[in-house]
Design goal:
The complex is a heterodimer of chains A (281) and B (223).
Chain A lengths: L5 H8 L10 H12 L10 H26 L1 E5 L6 E4 L5 E4 L4 E5 L7 E12 L8 E5 L2 E5 L3 E7 L2 E8 L1 E5 L4 E5 L2 E5 L5 E5 L7 H4 L1 E8 H12 L2 E4 L6 E7 L3 H11 L3 E3 L7 E5 L2
Parallel strand pairs in A: 5-6, 15-18
Antiparallel strand pairs in A: 1-4, 2-3, 3-5, 4-5, 5-8, 6-7, 7-10, 8-9, 9-12, 10-11, 12-13, 14-16, 17-18
Helix pairs in contact in A: 5-6
Chain B lengths: L15 H6 L19 H9 L3 H23 L2 H17 L11 H19 L26 H13 L3 H12 L4 H8 L3 H29 L1
Helix pairs in contact in B: 2-3, 3-4, 3-5, 4-5, 6-9, 7-9, 8-9
Classes of the chains: A alpha+beta (281), B mainly alpha (223).
C-alpha cells in the first residue's frame, strides 16, 4: 500500500464543512425581517404580549400535567411505511407521515382542541370557532379555527404551509397570519419567518408531486430533505435552477430525476450511511 | 427543461437566470454569451454602498451558503454559523456608508470578515483553547470492514477525524489547509507563536495519517 502523503490528506480534507447546506430562502427572510422591521412580521406590543404569554404558560402547563397524570393522554405513532389517517373526535382529519407522532389528552374538544406533533402531518381542521385548534411546539404556537395545512415539527422548529384558509402563528415576540400558499416558520430561537409557497411543495409527501419554478438546486434539495425527512449530501459546489413538475411519491424518484437533470449520479442510502448522495454534477 | 451541452469545460446553460446566478466566484467557466453577463459582485457591492436593497439580497443569495460553511469550520454548529453570517450581512447593511470604496474581491472580503467574526465569537465565549489538549483517541474499530473504501467514504472519515482533533490543533489545521490562512495570520489570530502553529500542523497531519492508514489496513485485510 502506498504511504499517505500530506497532499492526500489535503485533498480529502478539502471539503470539510461543505456538507453544511443552510436554507438560503429562510436565511434571507430572516435578514429582511431585521433590515426592514415590520415588513414580514408584525409585532404586537411586545412587552404586553410577553406578560400575557407568560401567565398563560403557567396555567397551561399546570393544567396539562394534572390531566395527563389523572386521565392519561393518547399518542398515535405511525410506524408503518405509508401515511396514516387519524380521525379526531371533533371531525378533524390528520394525515400522519411515517415515523411521526400525534398526541392529545382527554381534555381535547372540551374548551379547546390541543394537540402536539413530532414529525410531519397534514391537518384538515373541522371548523369550530368556539373551540380553537392549538398546536404548541418549542417556542411556537399555531392557532386554527378551520382550515387545511401541512405542519412539520423538527426538534424545536415549527413550519406550517397553508393550502386553504389562514392560521395564526406565534413565536417569541410576534405573531403572523399565514394565509393560503404561504409558509411560516418559527425558529428554535422563537423568530417568526413568513415565506411564499406558490407550489405548496410541503404537501408533496402526501400528494406525490413537487413543482419548481427556477428554483436553485440547493433549495430543491432542501425541500426534498424536509418533506421526506431524509438526509441528502450534495458533493461539489454546483448550483443551477430547476423548473418543472416532478413525481414525488418518495425521495428516491425525485432525486433520481434531479440527478439526471444535472448529469450526475445518485447513491441510495445504505445501512452504513443512511444518506442519499448526489455527485458528479 | 431544455439546455444545451456546452463544449468540454464549459458549463451548460440551463436557463437565462442561470447566467445571472454566476458570480465572479463561480467555479466553472462563464457561459459563452457576452451580452448577458451578470452584475458582478463589484457592481453589487457598489450598489449596496448606495443603499440598494436588492444588491444586499443578491450578495446574500450568492454568498450565504459558502460563508456559513466557512463559519461552521470554526464554530462547529450550524445554528451558530448561520447567526454569525446573519450578523455580518446585517452589519454591512447598517454600516454601508462606511464600507471600503474599493475591495479587490468581494468574495474574499466577505470570507475574511466571516473568519474574523467566527474567531471573535469563539474568543468571546472562551472557546479558543490556551493549551494543547489531550491527544485524540486512535480509531478503535472499523464499523463495516467488508465495505470498499471509496473516495467519498474516505473523505467522510477524514472530516470526522478532523472533528476529533484537540480544538486548538483543529482550528490551526482548518485555518491553514481549508481557509488558506498564512502561518503568520494564524499565529496572530490565535495569539500563539509561529513555532506552535508549525507544531500543531505536524501533529494534525500525524494523527490524520494514522487514522487513515489504520482504516486502509483494516479494509485491505477484510476485502
Amino acid at each position: 500500500m502506498n504511504p499517505i502523503s500530506d497532499q492526500d490528506i489535503d485533498r480529502l480534507a478539502e471539503h470539510y464543512g461543505s456538507d453544511f447546506q443552510p436554507d438560503v430562502a429562510v436565511g434571507l427572510a430572516r435578514l429582511k425581517a431585521r433590515t426592514r422591521p415590520g415588513a414580514a412580521v408584525r409585532s404586537i406590543g411586545r412587552r404586553r404580549w410577553l406578560g400575557v404569554a407568560a401567565s398563560f404558560l403557567v396555567l397551561i402547563s399546570a393544567g396539562t400535567l394534572a390531566y395527563g397524570a389523572f386521565f392519561g393522554a393518547t399518542t398515535v405513532v405511525n410506524e408503518g411505511d405509508q401515511p396514516m389517517v387519524v380521525a379526531l373526535m371533533d371531525g378533524t382529519e390528520v394525515w400522519l407521515q411515517q415515523d411521526s407522532e400525534l398526541r392529545y389528552d382527554r381534555t381535547f374538544n372540551e374548551e379547546d382542541r390541543r394537540v402536539a406533533l413530532r414529525g410531519q402531518a397534514y391537518f384538515e381542521v373541522h371548523p369550530d370557532k368556539s373551540r380553537p385548534f392549538l398546536i404548541n411546539g418549542g417556542p411556537a404556537q399555531l392557532r386554527v379555527t378551520g382550515t387545511a395545512f401541512n405542519l412539520r415539527m423538527e426538534g424545536e422548529e415549527m413550519e406550517v404551509e397553508v393550502s386553504e384558509g389562514s392560521v395564526t402563528l406565534t413565536g417569541q415576540n410576534n405573531r403572523v397570519a399565514v394565509t393560503q400558499k404561504k409558509r411560516g416558520v418559527v425558529t428554535p430561537a422563537g423568530e417568526v419567518i413568513l415565506l411564499d409557497a406558490p407550489d405548496l411543495n410541503r404537501h408533496a409527501w402526501r400528494l406525490g408531486k413537487m413543482t419548481f419554478d427556477n428554483t436553485p438546486l440547493r433549495e430543491v434539495l432542501h425541500t426534498i430533505r424536509d418533506n421526506f425527512r431524509v438526509e441528502i449530501v450534495l458533493e461539489g459546489n454546483e448550483d443551477f435552477p430547476i423548473s418543472g413538475t416532478f413525481p414525488a411519491n418518495n425521495p428516491a424518484d425525485i432525486l433520481t430525476a434531479v440527478a439526471k437533470l444535472g448529469g450526475g449520479k445518485l447513491d441510495f442510502p445504505t445501512n452504513e450511511s443512511g444518506v442519499f448522495r448526489l455527485y458528479g454534477m | 427543461m431544455n439546455f444545451s451541452d456546452g463544449a468540454e469545460g464549459i458549463r451548460p446553460i440551463r436557463s437565462l437566470s442561470d447566467i445571472y446566478l454566476q458570480g465572479e466566484n463561480a467555479t466553472l467557466s462563464p457561459p459563452i454569451m457576452a451580452d448577458l453577463t451578470p452584475a458582478t459582485d463589484q457592481k453589487l457591492f457598489a450598489d449596496l454602498r448606495r443603499g440598494v436593497e436588492g444588491a444586499l439580497d443578491e450578495l446574500f443569495r450568492r454568498h450565504y451558503v459558502g460563508l456559513c460553511q466557512v463559519a461552521i469550520r470554526f464554530v462547529g454548529k450550524g445554528g451558530e454559523a448561520e447567526d454569525i453570517v446573519q450578523e455580518l450581512f446585517l452589519s454591512i447593511w447598517e454600516k454601508r456608508d462606511s464600507l471600503p470604496e474599493q475591495v479587490s474581491g468581494v468574495g474574499a472580503y466577505l470570507r475574511r470578515a466571516t473568519r474574523n467574526r467566527s474567531l471573535n465569537y469563539l474568543r468571546d465565549r472562551n472557546r479558543i483553547p490556551v493549551d494543547e489538549g489531550d491527544p485524540p483517541d486512535a480509531p478503535s474499530a472499523l464499523s463495516n470492514p467488508g465495505q470498499q473504501m471509496e473516495e467519498a467514504e474516505l473523505r467522510q472519515r477524514i472530516h470526522r477525524a478532523i472533528d476529533r482533533l484537540p480544538e486548538r490543533c483543529r482550528l490551526v489545521f482548518v485555518m491553514s489547509r481549508i481557509e488558506g490562512m498564512s502561518h503568520r495570520e494564524i499565529s496572530q489570530a490565535l495569539d500563539i507563536s509561529n513555532k506552535t502553529v508549525e507544531n500543531q500542523m505536524t501533529r494534525a497531519y500525524r494523527f490524520l495519517r494514522q487514522w487513515l492508514s489504520l482504516y486502509l489496513v483494516l479494509s485491505a485485510m477484510f476485502c
